[in-house]
Amino acid sequence: MGPAEMIMPFRIIGSKGMSHVPQGMKKNMLFSILCEFYNPSVLCFSSARYGSDTETAIPEEIFEAASESGSYKRGDSSFYALIDNFSNSGDFCTLEKVLQRMKRENRVFLEKSFITVFKAYRKAGLPEKAINLFYRMVDEFQCKRTVKSFNSVLNIIIHAGLQNRAVEFYFCVVNSNDINITPNLLSFNLIIKSLCKMGLVDRAVEIFREMPAKNSVPDVFTYCTLMDGLCKVHRIDEAVSLLDEMQIEGCFPTSVTFNVLLNGLCKKGDLARASKLVDNMFLKGCLPNEVTYNTLIHGLCLKGKLDKAIQLLKRMVDSKCIPNDITYGTIINGLVKAGRADDGVQVLNDMNERGFHVNMHIYSSVLNGLFKEEKYDEARRVWKEMMESGCKPNEVVYGVLMDGLCQEGRYHEAEEILHEITNNGIMPNAFIYSSLLRSYFRSGNCEKALSIWEDMQNKDFAPNEFCYSVMIQGLCEEGKLEEAMILWNDMLRRGLMPDTVSYSTLIYGHCNSGEVEKGLELFNEMLYQDPPCQPDVITYNIILNALCKRGSIARAIDFLNIMMDRGCDPDPVTCNIFLKVLREKFDPPKDGKEFLDELVLRLFKSERIHGALRILEVMLQKHLPPVALAWERAVHNLCKPRKVQTSIGRCWDCLIR
């Protein structure tokens, strides 16, 4: 359809049905109808058909049809309609041609039209185009920029996650003498938000303090943003002080304000101040909402106060505040981690009774807890209820079930579950395969584990480092060091980086077969891997045990020094390795008291309190009394001076009575 045919219906309407409308207004109305009726992309016609050197965005007949009448300015509103339409459709190529035509015809550009384009750029994820157009507004299109267009572009950059670019753009515009734009409240809120996301909280505070001088009063959003930024960098006291400041300035906090501070206090574990803040919240007339309760419940669970968390859940329900999946999930996870899976099941049952949809994450947590506590019958009952409720398990929940069945020794059932997973169109993950492999190695069925591994390869499943680690460990424990090395080299060939467990497993395999030097070579390889793979206390203990077994005591002592110099503290296994060698390899045998005393004092001197206390526990269990200096350091680090003085005072009172 050509332009003549496109405008023909409107000519008919114009000649018959719009005779009472003034001619100039009539043409403009017809053009607007055309813009609304046709898709904007249809309004673009090629130069091949119309003999023009360039592609024109709009048919020439439509522009030429417009006539001037009185004060009517031909075509401006039509151009504005086109800008809106092309922006909404995302046709930025044609939109640019419209802008260029407006410039050639000296049309009047409106800031609101540019803001419409900016919004389209945000939707399309094109922040740089928005910045470019912002700078072109005055120089190229003679359109005055105000803080509205500035805020629009700033918001686009932040929405795209380009915080650095947002800060750069803000200061470039605000500090420019040519642009002459003064930021308003929205501008300040946006830049403070960006700075806080970048962790530049001090700079955000500086901007916040500049606001009154620039006739901008902070609002609730400003305070909340800054409080959240301070809490995230663990400056809770400063965030709480802002609460008093905002009220002095006449800005009243909302539930969101209190929730931000409560979240910071609960993550810090300061439940006493959190409780006082809730009281303050009620005094200010702010009622707790779901976020408030969820934050407090999460804080209580982190501190292990699970019974109080359950009480708060009941209070939440009594307050007509409906718990959600996050509320229940937080409590159930806390109970499971504390070894109270049965209580977690009760909360799960409460969810079902109240008609809440239990998600896969909650089921996974409960089942995992029950299997870990070896409550297999209860776990299978929960699984059955889950299936009967219509919940379709995903690979994570299937993995928990398979791991539990393997722990119980039900290997055949676990393998049946594996077939069920594949039949349901679910790709088994690394955890599922690893659980099955580990279970067969533990049962001594190495051949079956190798069969599962081969099946994985046939199904084009790409095993990760964890799968390789399980296989290498199993083969090393079976004495199949050669097969383990084949898998190790295969893992390296695939570009997978061995982790600490993989290295420790292979080092153990070599040391166990008498190849201690090869184990030490692998240890050095760990340290010089890129990135380096840090050995843990288990790795060190494997090598220490191998050196002591072959009588290399001096070398073992040197290796212990390397271990401590690298920041790895010895554990009870380390102590037992040396106590055994001192007892069996020396004549007369040594009890190891002097060795452990020196170890404890060295750890205390390095301020490695936890490590020192673990060695002290070993000494007490072995009836090896530590030296007085070790006791003194232990009391000094464990007890607060005031509490010690109070305890001594109470003992003295009891003695003189």
TrEMBL record:
Pfam families according to UniProt: PPR, PPR_1, PPR_2
PPR repeats: 184-218, 219-253, 254-288, 289-323, 324-358, 359-393, 394-428, 429-463, 464-498, 499-533, 536-570
UniProt entry tagged with the keyword Repeat: yes
Source species, domain of life: Eukaryota
Transmembrane segments: none
Keyword annotations of the record: Repeat
SUPFAM superfamilies found in the cross-reference section: HCP-like
InterPro entries according to UniProt: PPR_P_subfamily (IPR050872), PPR_rpt (IPR002885), TPR-like_helical_dom_sf (IPR011990)
PANTHER family (alphabetical): MITOCHONDRIAL GROUP I INTRON SPLICING FACTOR CCM1, PENTATRICOPEPTIDE REPEAT-CONTAINING PROTEIN
Family as reported in the entry's similarity comment: Belongs to the PPR family. P subfamily.
Protein name, entry field: Pentatricopeptide repeat-containing protein
Annotated organism of origin: Trapa natans
